[in-house]
């Protein structure tokens, strides 16, 4: 059995002692790098083999032997080894090693190396050895030739070349006392480089992220370009300008390329020098952006030739060469992929995209610097107008002046880039301490334009159609080398917007102030009316609180109507004009409209909440006019709560309760009925906006038809257009629905409010509503037949007699049809009402899901039920007596309201002793129902719809939330109204279906 560990140990010992097996199985390991100068490394035996005498040296790569210094190469043998031949006495091998040539005997000297007796002495550093004539034949002897001034020997000593040192000096030397050797070949006077010392800080780029990079590009180009620019080299000056852009126009340190332009911060004149125009003057932004030197007149008509904004860009390479002029279309201004063509006048453009970092890096490797011009024709001549650039990253000390709102502090510039990966390449010193480029081409930091916005402001007045100088606003961001290696996704933003000189914000603010004053005055009048109806003799906390609530509703309407009118006016003019009288407002106007919509909705929500609370807390009583016509046998509980059941009330006093239950259920059903259907409303609105495609009108394109040829698919959805379109479509659909339902359906098919009044007349039940202390509504339901508890045949006969006009009229007053009234009741009647109805405030038996639970709870609740029933009968008699003028000290009169009373919704009559019933429009009592508050509910729904869309920019989501909130309001109103109805009318809630 073989012992493998022992065998391995034996092999290792053999290798350690470098014992070479004759069969070549075990080799002595040697390193090729340790071979001597006259040895080569044999790749078969892995050994260093010495060269023969004639091959005195190894080749540079150490793979083969070459001829010795005094040997010429004759040929190559089959194994790839040169065949060498010794040169004769007094001859020397030519520089190419292929021939021997004699040398001048005066230059012979003794040398014992390689058995040579005599060789030519070497030429000096300023000489070359001449061995051949111009046609390649050998000279009779080799000799040394002195190079002419400003020429030096080439590295192989075969020819004289012109000195690479610029400017050249005699003997090709640079006097380091007065000059400096830049980039090893340029000799520059030190006086030209005083502002750019050979210091690390001169080449260091400090980025916004705080990273500092010793830039290779600045090391190789800054000082030389600065020197050449002082000599008025235009390309060099352009290179310095590009480096100023790379450092984000920072000039607060010595060695900054922007220092070159510190004294040139102004708009150049026609006699401008060699420096390129990089900076505008300090504080000149307001003046520059207000100039009226652009003579071109533009049109919003998509078929007009003046509908295109022609931008031209001058492109520069990083080293300053002009790459030419090119049209600055949307494709050029965006790093996002796509093709969009020219810029249409008046059409806003917006694009947000996410691109991989490698794509931005590929653009930045061949960084291009731009200067933007507006091109137009003036009297047949093509004109280029230079456009300013606002770089938000420009830093002045610790400030970023271009991010501030005050234009006086802005520093406008001319040049920009989209991506540059040039300045971020870091220098790496070599073994001798000289700077060298890192092997990797990935920069430490890459700068790119994260956001690019073009703002074009249109003039007004006599210069309508002309524009002020467009402004390009750029914000840069950075990518680290690690992010580039990971190829992260980078978000980008590009937008083009048009503004005009409009007074929309001023008009909104003035209108808001005026309407707010009117609203508060109107709220004060309503509060006064409230105080009179509530029986208050002075101003108290309740009145002030009511004033605040009323002011919320009126201010809400004022705010919303104002901004809705402004937005609609802007939208219609913008979409319908061909001459640019009005363009879409700017961000401030959008912010103003959004703010007022939010405030208006908040105030409207308070108004709606208070309206619902008021409606579910009113006092309501169903007054039965029926007189007993038959007796019954049903027992009832005793007043004293005893368990013995016997009838103490005459049977002739009993009437059916089902008519009252029927009226109560009808009232319960109409509490949340509205004049229009919200579900149908939202469905049709979504059909118009989404299915029919009307939503495209929200795009910031000045077209009355979104199907026009000039339609721009990537134009953004404008906030004001969305707001205005939502209002127009919503109100348009609502008006059509209202005309159909109110003008046609309710007139000829079904009117819920009138049907309720008819039901009251058929049931012989009147409705007595007290919305406030002394104010309420009365629905006269007394049957003209005197009774309603009857069979079907009798009921049909009564209706037929009424159709034949054989009975009296239903009105409260004889020979009238007026059944509904507003009423101001005497304070004494209100006191009696409160006193009589006090038992109704006591707890009634809790509702049960099963009617059989009455029996189980009858015994302990007998006293409470009896008191409530007795209070009901007492209240019924009191109100019947009041309405029949049967009370001596409590009476009323019926009359119409004065014109001013109707306008102000206020009653002037004094009602301490005598009440007043005002003839109304036939349905004034709907003020305590949803039906009579349609304006409030309509504006709430519309405000909610537009509010959600402004927040989420989604019509469908706005419709869904509006529908859900409306259902929540309906549910709250139904539940609260049901409980209040059961509590105030003694109707068991379980009978309210």
TrEMBL record:
Keyword Membrane appears in the UniProt entry: yes
Residue spans crossing the bilayer: 723-745, 928-948, 954-971
Keyword Transmembrane applies: yes
GO biological process annotation, one example: cilium assembly
GO cellular component, one term: MKS complex
Matches recorded under InterPro entries: Meckelin
Regions annotated as coiled coil: none
Keyword annotations of the record: Membrane, Signal, Transmembrane, Transmembrane helix
Source species, domain of life: Eukaryota
Signal peptide annotation: 1-23
Database matches in PANTHER family: MECKELIN (PTHR21274)
Record protein name field: Meckelin
